[in-house]
């Protein structure tokens, strides 16, 4: 029987009209035993209320953007003000310059930026620009890194040493898939071999400098430095996908984060941004060195456009969000709460004999149900999906909301409190007790 009858009812109705009942497959509960996902009715700060009236502590943060918590008053005011002034002009507006300046000030590798509507678009366009700059067509990416759903980057999430051209989706032509080479993250040797073999055809090497898509994974010392050196030596461009990582760990990007190994020795040619920089409204951005960005229309031959791009509401929300994040102590507080939560989960799992690997980077961490460190996708794949599903459901029924994916991170926000951590640790203790008894 269902504890969430209204969610069940809405899901059944949604199934008749929306494919799979969800507008993004990541929201489906398919990977955690199926059935109706929870339909949320409202959200404030770190909490959701669902359509059945249950309350939840939110660690999903909408897959990253909601870093200041839901309905933050400063961002809400900015959106209301922007809405009053008209939500879409199709002309340039002044605040676009202000957001561009803020991004440039925080991320010095950006000489010029361009706003788009999603991380997918931002990434997709960086590849086009890299191809325009180099006259080459191939892309090297890393296994398990997700870069949005455009054809080229939805290829070969396999975990072999260096795989070529296996689409992760139907509908991607083999001709496109064969333009992508995938190597394991943190594996300099595999990258060197791929560049030796295909180097003069490679337009770019794309990487999440801190991985967010098969767990939170730091690059090992030397990896990014070697990546940049080898890529440049091959005459290709370095693209950083910072859609998740920018403004997640500090007021800046992973590339400017002092705890990132090699951060001082590396500078990408192009960076893709999204999520947090829109304060919860749709946005993406890409940018890089002036000479590279000058390939983009109307200056150069690489075409990219957008009816909604740089729209006043998204830009206003993004600016307001960055203003909140700029306040002193914001990231330290999220880190303190995340540390207490991650350490508490780790200790409790250990006490119950449940293998759990936690990778925490400041206010975000991943939980893999496996007994060894996770530094690449192959290791992440050892995560016990059934155990995660059980944990996910036991937490959900106690009012703790995670992403329904065994790889997705827990995100702390500026709105979480010590009391949220207390409740979450109590719920996890209960979940582990039940799971241990079931072993
Ligand atoms: N790049 C990375 C690293 C991402 O995590 C995501 C989304 N999770 C994207 C790109 C795509 O962004 P969007 O969903 O806004 O298209």
From TrEMBL:
GO MF, one example: transaminase activity
E.C. number: 5.4.3.8
Subcellular locations according to the entry: Cytoplasm
Record Pfam families: Aminotran_3 (PF00202)
Q: Which HAMAP family match?
A: HemL_aminotrans_3
The text of the family note is: Belongs to the class-III pyridoxal-phosphate-dependent aminotransferase family. HemL subfamily.
Q: What is this protein called?
A: Glutamate-1-semialdehyde 2,1-aminomutase
**Organism from which the protein derives:** Paenibacillus sabuli
The gene name reads hemL
């Amino acid at each position: 029987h269902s504890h969430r009858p209204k969610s069940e009812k809405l899901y059944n109705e949604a199934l008749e009209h929306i494919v799979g009942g969800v507008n993004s497959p990541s929201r489906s509960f398919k990977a955690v035993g199926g059935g109706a996902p929870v339909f949320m009715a409202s959200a404030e700060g770190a909490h959701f209320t669902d359509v059945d009236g249950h309350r939840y502590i939110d660690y999903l943060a909408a897959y990253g953007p909601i870093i200041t918590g839901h309905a933050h008053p400063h961002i809400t005011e900015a959106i209301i003000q922007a809405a009053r002034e008209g939500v879409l002009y199709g002309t340039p507006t002044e605040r676009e310059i202000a957001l561009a300046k803020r991004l440039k000030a925080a991320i010095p590798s950006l000489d010029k930026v361009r706003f788009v509507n999603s991380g997918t678009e931002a990434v997709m366009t960086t590849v086009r620009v890299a191809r325009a700059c180099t006259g080459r067509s191939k892309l090297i990416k890393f296994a398990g890194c997700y870069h949005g759903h455009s054809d080229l980057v939805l290829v070969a999430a396999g975990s072999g040493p260096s795989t070529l051209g296996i689409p992760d989706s139907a509908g991607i032509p083999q001709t496109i898939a064969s333009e992508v080479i995938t190597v394991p993250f943190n594996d300099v040797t595999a990258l060197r071999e791929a560049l030796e073999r295909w180097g003069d055809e490679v337009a770019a090497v794309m990487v999440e400098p801190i991985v967010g898509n098969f767990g939170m994974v730091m690059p090992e010392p030397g990896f990014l430095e070697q990546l940049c050196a080898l890529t440049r030596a091959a005459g290709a461009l370095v693209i950083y996908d910072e859609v998740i990582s920018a403004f997640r760990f500090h007021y800046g990007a992973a590339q400017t984060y002092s705890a990132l190994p090699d951060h001082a020795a590396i500078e990408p040619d192009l960076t893709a941004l999204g999520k947090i920089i829109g304060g919860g409204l749709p946005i993406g951005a890409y940018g890089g060195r002036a000479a590279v960005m000058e390939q983009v229309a109307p200056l150069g031959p690489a075409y990219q456009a957008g009816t909604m791009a740089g729209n006043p509401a998204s830009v206003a929300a993004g600016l307001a969000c960055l203003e909140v994040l700029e306040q002193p102590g914001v990231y330290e507080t999220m880190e303190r709460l995340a540390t207490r939560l991650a350490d508490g989960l780790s200790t409790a799992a250990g006490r119950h004999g449940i293998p759990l690997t936690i990778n925490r980077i400041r206010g975000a961490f991943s939980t893999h149900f496996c007994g060894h460190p996770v530094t690449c996708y192959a290791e992440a794949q050892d995560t016990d999906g059934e155990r995660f599903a059980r944990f996910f459901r036991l937490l959900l029924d106690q009012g703790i909301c995670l992403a329904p994916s065994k790889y997705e991170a827990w995100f702390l926000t500026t709105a979480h409190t010590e009391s949220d951590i207390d409740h979450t640790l109590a719920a996890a203790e209960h979940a582990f007790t039940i799971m241990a008894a079931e072993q």
